[in-house]
Every structure is written in structure tokens, then in C-alpha cells.
Amino acid sequence: MTEDQKHRLETQLWAIADVLRGKMDADEFRDYILGFIFYKYLSEKQCLFADRLLETESVTDYTKLEDEDDIAAIKDESLEKLGYFLRPDQLFGSIVKRGEIESEEDEDDDIEADNFILGDLQAILNDIEKSTMGTDSEHDFIHLFEDLDLASTKLGRTPKARNAIIAKILKLLSKIDFALDTIDADILGDAYEYLISQFASGAGKKAGEFYTPQQVSRILAKIVTLGKTKIKNAYDPTCGSGSLLLRIAKEVEVGHFCGQELNRTTYNLARMNMILHDVHFSRFDIMQEDTLEEPQHMDHEFEAVVANPPFSAKWKGADNPLNQSDDRFSKYGKLAPTSKADYAFVQHMIYQLADNGVGAVVLPHGVLFRGAAEGTIREYIIRELNCLDAVIGLPPNLFYGTSIPACILVLKKCRENDDNILFIDASAGFEKKGNQNVLSHEHVEKIIETYTKRESIEKYSHVASMQEIADNDYNLNIPRYVDTFEEEEAIDLDEVASQIAALQIRMKTSDEVIAGFCRELGIASPFNS
């Protein structure tokens, strides 16, 4: 698929959102649009898989298959290979046809909801989840469609109105060929990611819960995979929609993905995103729970750990006595304050990081210089663990929902350069795009190149010795290490005086001309001359 074709697919999918735009907030209609795209994807995937199994049979088109024994055999194979199952009459195309027939024939405004496709559609979505019960994929599909509330009055005041709008969305989607048999698996997944980014741009503060800007994701993914072509596993403790994890897969081959997400809706979105990128259900484990209070992957260490946690989120901290003895936090001498969980996430990431692993986390600048408990934790990470490899300052207004500048901390348990820390000030490198600042490809490459070469560049980067860090009392505020001050050009006072004198002469000449006009008109001059 060419870039033009990819762009057309993205545009077509985004245009479908127009059906719901104005009826509800972006973060609400997102769930319907992305959910229906996912249902269509599962249908097409099921159909292609079944057609391959039927190649030597008398009926080779799964949509026309009626033999129950054959359907049962396909179900067994589908659950093993795909992780779910759809009968021929449950496929996306089938429900679209039913919706078209009924929308043409049903004229009675008082017709009951059971006569519409909404009931059938809800049953199909439920059956997709039920088909996985008792199988290895159950956890990855359970409650996956729970955010598609087909009875919501936001879709329409009456059942008929809701039916009409859902039928319209499905019909529009049916005209788009996902071409799963001819394109790279990531193409549709990337289009899905594009939609997520578009919804994020309209979701305000809520966007930070589920989306990390693509170029920031790219920086983190490149850093944690430098010099590698394959990694055993990747982990994101605050995975949102899963975009950071999937970005790693664009850099290297990833054996297994793990992630945890607190928000239920976003957790569902992450699982859908994994499946849409053709990540087999056996290769990802996304869990829904509070990572700091209920960590779900504590028995694993990871070769790549990335995160964009909610900035300065509240957590239980010392209010939960168990945190005092938790191996993730206990050795640092202090717990992160309850009002700011930033360092709690850093400690969690360090704990889960493998000896050969690399971690990269996006945080607010306050973590670099705040004192009290955070200062104690920061000093322990640098002086005792010596696992802080680099600090990268980013431009302001990169993230949806907040305009504050952020930074990236790079973490390694076994550092190649264990006698220094690299500081990069990339805060001035950005482009304006509407109300948002964005990183260009060139900005990202400069950051990665500087990190890779690990060199000091005037007004951009500095390799600070551990003694220099200690002399600064383990304060990591970037301006202490990277001097970006620009001297102003010296002012020539004689030249300024000459310009003022010349200006006065021109003003006197203008005054005389105006006074002459006043005399000709017989009116008083404002200059009394």
C-alpha cells in the first residue's frame, strides 16, 4: 500500500466519525467508531481464515457455508489460531445487509426495538466474547465491547433513531476495503492509530489518559532498542492505548508485550489495538488494574520498559502501610509523596527492568529538582543504583491536555558509561501545528543521534561527570548543565544617538509641512507656528 492509499484509508475512516461528531464528545464517539472498525476487522479476518480452510471443499465461500459440521470444525481451528469465532451469519457484511433491508422496508415509527439490527448486533458482539470462554484467549477478549452502549440515548432519542445512525455507520464502513489479504498487517493498525491520535486532539485533558504523541513514542522506542534487532519482551506499566508498546515493534522484533492500564475503557482500546496490529493473543498480556497498588507482572523482568504516566498523579504512598515494605520502594529511604506519584512509577520501572534492559519514561520537569522525599529518591537512583543514563528535556505543549514541558529519563541497570550522565536540552526544537507543538523527524533524529554519540554540543547537550552531579546536590535541572543563554548583540549608543537626531529632523520637517497646510486652509496650526 502506498502512502497515498494509506492516507486515503485514514481519511475515509476519519470521515465516518462525522456521523457522530456533534452528538457527543470526541472521547465518547471514539469508542463507537473504533469498536465498529474492530468488529469489521475481526469479521474480515475470520472470513479470510475460513476461506483458506475451505479451499478444497465443495463450498469455498465462508459467507455461504451452511453445513454445521464444517462450521464447528472451523470454529475449533479459529479459536486456536485467531482466538475467537464468528459464524457466517454474524459477519460484518451480514449485519450490514440486514440493516439495509430493514431501513428500506420499515416505515412504522412505533416499531419495537427487537425488529431492528441493534439487538442482533449486540448479540453478535456478546457472542464474540463468549466464543473465547474457557480458551487461552479468554482474557484478551472478555468485555472487549462493553463500551459500545447501543442503547445510549446519545445515539438517538428513540430505538429507531439509534438504529438508523448505527446502520449508517456500518454501511459507510462496509464501503471501505481493509484488504487484509493484500496489505501489510500494520497498515490498518497504523490507520487505527491515526484515528486514536485524531480523537486525542479533540479530547482535551482526557487525551493524556490514552495517547502519547507519535514522535515522543518514537524517541522512547528508539532509545530502548538501540543496537538491537530483537528483544525478548517489552513492558509499559501505564500503557494507555498501547501505542508506545506497538511503536517498539516498529524498531525491533518483540517476543512478548506486557502492559497495565487503570482506565477500563482505555484498557479495552489497548487490547483492540494489539489485535488490529496482528499481534497474536498469545504474544500480549494487557491487564487492567492500578499498577502502583496492584501490579500484575511482578514476576517478570523486561528488556524494554517504556511509560508516559499521568503527570504528578496522586497515589496512596505512606497511607498504605504495605508500601513501606514493598520491594519496589522500601530501599530508597523515602516514599514518593502522595500528591506526586512520579518517582513511584520510576521505582516500579527500575524494579521490573532486566539487567540487560533499557527503560525510558516521560515525566514533568519537577522530578529533576524537587526536594524532600523526591530529592532523597533521586539521589539514591543516581548515587547508589547508578542507573540514570540520560535526561532529555522536551519542548512545551507537546502533550494533549497539558502545556507544561516534559522530560525523558533513560534508565539502565548495567550502564556502559557509568561515570557520567548525558543531558540533552531539546526544548527549542519543535514546529507549531495549530495550538500544539510537534517534533519533526529531524528533531527526533537529532535527539537520537546525540544520545547515541553521547557527546557535548554547545547549547544542546552536556556529558556531566558524577562529581558534577554530586556538586549540584543531585539536582538535575537541565539549565545547570546545558547553557542555552544567548548573549544579546552589543548596542552602539553613538549609532542610536545618530538615528534619534535624524528622526527629530524628519519630524521637524513634517511639522512645518502640516503647519503650511493649516495656513492655506485658514485654520489654527497644532504647532502654533
Report what the structure shows.
The protein has helices spanning 3-16, 26-53, 68-81, 92-105, 117-130, 138-141, 159-174, 185-201, 214-225, 243-248, 264-276, 322-325, 342-352, 372-385, 441-453, 466-471, 493-521, and strands spanning 230-236, 253-261, 284-288, 302-307, 353-364, 388-393, 406-412, 420-425, 431-433, 436-438, 461-465. The protein has 529 residues and is of the alpha/beta class. It has three domains: 3-200, Ferritin, CATH 1.20.1260; 203-480, Vaccinia Virus protein VP39 (Rossmann fold, 3-Layer(aba) Sandwich); 493-529, no CATH class. The protein has a nine-stranded mixed sheet. A two-stranded antiparallel ribbon has the order 9-10. Strand 1, helix 10 and strand 2 form a beta-alpha-beta unit. The longest helix is centred in the last third of the chain and has 29 residues, at 493-521. The protein is globular.
